[in-house]
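Re: Re: ligand-bound prediction request (bumping)

Still looking for help on this. To restate: I need the protein modeled with zinc ion bound, output as structure tokens. Inputs repeated here so nobody has to scroll up.
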Amino acid sequence: MPELAEAAYYARLWHPGLNHRILQVHAGSRAQFFRGIPAQAVRQALTDTVFLSARTHGKNLLFEFSGGLWLAGHLGMTGELLAGEPDHVPDKHEHLVLYTPEAALVFRDSRLFGGVKLTESLEGLPPEWLALPPEILSAGFTEQRVAEALKRHARQPLKAFLLDQTWFPGIGNWMADEALFQLRLPPSTPCGQVDPGALRKVLRHICRISLKTVGADWSDLPAAWLMRYRWKAGGHCPRCGAELARKTLRGRTACWCPGCQQGEDAPPASGKESGGLKRKRKEPAVRGPRRKGSRHALS
Ligand SMILES: [Zn+2]
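Reply:
Sorry for the wait, this slipped through. Here it is.
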């Protein structure tokens, strides 16, 4: 699932409660979910406030309440938000329910990787939120910034680096694989070889389309995207028809097309510029040995 779009999608599901008073709060007893703040304190603080806004930054969620109160959090691996009927009865996985006259705003998380933290900030957005790195669709996500990121991590495989939230907020495993697919680069490509302009363009494109198309079942993503086919084992590349490859890397499944994600050797896409590699002078002495090596290796 497109990670940053998933957070934005779920945050929108709480919109029925906007501008309504919180009549009652159900806060489960799991201190872990509330990041160490006692459930009782959360319950007391939020009861009788007005729910003012819901926003996201990458995978982060932020909800604003009257009186300068905020709930900052994230969904983790299994968290989800939903709006239930005003008389909703929480089950054991529903750690927070905010009851408004219109809807019950539910945060459900079966495995407790997600959670929220209550903070107070009377003068606008909480400082931790303001300190977050520029979002991929913001003006601050410049080519210069991407170039600096790639340069500083020149030897790291691009796939692993794209998951670094300090540089690429909101990019998760699937979106990183999609970016590599669209750049026609194998997951092991060292960051130092990647064209920053091409990477920035592809990331912004993926974020924009994901935010626009994401729905309840994610089936409305473009047919030419890898994301549509990586669900099933043995899926095929929508571009060249080759069987998709998968490998577990640091606990996450990387999925790519061995047919057309070969970096410099990738076949051109209908005569257009195809790869995400830096344009540079041909240096056979350097390229020779690498060609013999494991271009498809992932480590
Ligand atoms: Zn392919």
